[in-house]
Amino acid sequence: MSKKLINNPKNVVREMLEGVVDSTEGLALLAHANVVLQADLPEPDQRPVAIISGGGSGHEPAHAGYVGKGMLSAAVAGDVFTSPSTDAVLHAIRACAGPAGAVLIVKNYTGDRLNFGLAAELAQTEGIPVEIVVVADDVSLHQTVSEDRRRGIAGTVLIHKIAGAAAAAGKSLAEIADIARKAAGDLGSMGVALGACTLPGAKEAGFTLDKDEIELGLGIHGEKGVERRKIASADDLCETILKTIIEDRKIAKSDRVALLVNGLGATSALELAIMARGAIAYLRENGITVERVWNGTLLSALDMPGCSLSLLKLDDERAELLDAPTSASTWPGQGRISQKRQEIADPKGSSDDITYPDAGPLAQQIETIAHAVAQKLKAEEPHLTDLDTKAGDGDLGASLERGADAILALPNKAWATPATALIATGNALRKAIAGSSGPFYANALIRAGRHLQDDAEPTAAQWADAFETGAKAIAELGGAKEGDRTMLDALLPAAKAFNDATKAGKPAKEAWQAACDAARKGADSTADMTPELGRASYLGDRAVGVPDGGAVAVAIWMQEIADNL
To answer: Distance from the CA of 237 to the CA of which of 15, 32, 386, 548 falls in 20 to 30 A?
Structure first.
């Protein structure tokens, strides 16, 4: 069973609505119906046209999150993925509609159409004028069903905003319904899922996907998509989805559009931003003017990983209605964007400016070894990621792989002397690796490079002194010591072993192998240590049994140097 932060699965909808109302000023909850409405509505004869929407729960922040001045007057919540009852919709109409009437915005599902439609009929028999606007924006069904049978999905939120702003502007019932219907007709959406969602209380998800599979063209109720296919890059998915929407909605190169990038519940902001980037780029490349963009989780499918893209053709009136103010708590605000990405030139000067001398006697050997180390780190990425996932935050392998790519990208002149090689490598790692590894390695390499500034062909003893200098630089910067379960548990014993071996007169390669053996022994010993510093320290004793990834990485690259000497 999927873990959920709930009490009783039977009470999730009411308790969710109570939580929304308790934490949001200006909202109220009907005592005996799952209806959230504006708390301070004027007297009935003073009310503008009410805008009411809703549907099954599980789409949060829709629909209650869009209740507020300038958007929805009320939201009606059914059980999870289940249409609200006719009576609940009728309660909402009675509670917030006056003589000006109400517009019901309904997503195109049979249950919603039946219950909202019957409630509208009953309300009209009571003398309340009602218009229904049906949203059927899911273009993925363009080859499967007629337009009037398509599903309503995330683009519905844009219709909420347009209708709510029109009502706040004092427009009549007929005018608002006409504006909303025309907007719905110019709206297209399509989704992609990386996995299924799990209903509260359910023992398993609605479907399963292999690691490399996705569902393309899905609804918002945990169902499968129109097509199962292999996963593609974010840019490729944007192209596939947008091409379908553009062709179906007949969006021309001269058209202005609003773009909605919507998370389905378990998609990170990082992924949504990458999808937004890809979508904006594709639209601009095809001559379509993107004037408004909203990016976030606006209408979810519980905890489904994936997203949908929506396009709405814009004119001046729609843009003005989308820009109009609203007090709805989860409307993401102004969607205005620049028509070109704003980039500011970097400040002049750089801390990594280096004057490269002519290539010294060790240049070729240093470059060969450095490239071998880089390739080894790339090959070891899965292993290092696994170690860091078990006792850290899981980013070490990817970080060192980025560092390896930065090393491989350095120009030939960077390897001119030991000093330039170390300093250039340090600066490259500083820029390529975020988190702690980048600064630690950069500090060590730069200080070691400065130590060898005047030595084009250092002796083994000079290399040992430089190595020890670099290791101590890391200890000074991070405040760790041997025994704290960090990379220093490999570096400091290695530095001592290297120095001891050179002082004993051993050849350079033999002395370095002694350092490698000490590094490996030190790395292995971290498996028995309780971490004192770094992300692993948050795990305490739970990290015991797994060696520190940073220390293991040191042992790996040191041995790779030994193997290439």
So the answer is: 386
One DSSP character per residue, 217-262 reads S--SSS---SEEEE---HHHHHHHHHHHHHHHTT--TT-EEEEEEE
Q: Is the pLDDT of residue 219 over 60?
A: yes
Q: CB within 8 A of 218, min separation 6: which ones?
A: 140, 191, 192, 193, 224, 225, 226, 306
pLDDT value at 417 more than 50? yes
Exposed, middle or buried, 290 (CB in 10 Å: 0-12/13-18/19+)?
Answer: buried
- Indicate the domain borders of the chain: 9-195+212-323, 363-564
CB 95 within 8 A of CB 30: yes
Nearest to 50 by CA among 153, 201, 167, 135: 167
Residue type at position 146: S
* 363-564 classified as CATH 3.10.20.30: no
At residue 452, the 3 state secondary structure works out as coil
| Averaged confidence pLDDT in the chain | 93
What pTM, to 2 d.p., does this model score? Answer: 0.76
Does residue 141 register a pLDDT over 90?
A: no
Q: What CATH architecture is 9-195+212-323?
A: 3-Layer(aba) Sandwich (3.40)
Q: List the catalytic residue out of 63, 91, 221, 451.
A: 221
Fill in the amino acid letter for 230.
K
Q: Is 221 a catalytic residue?
A: yes
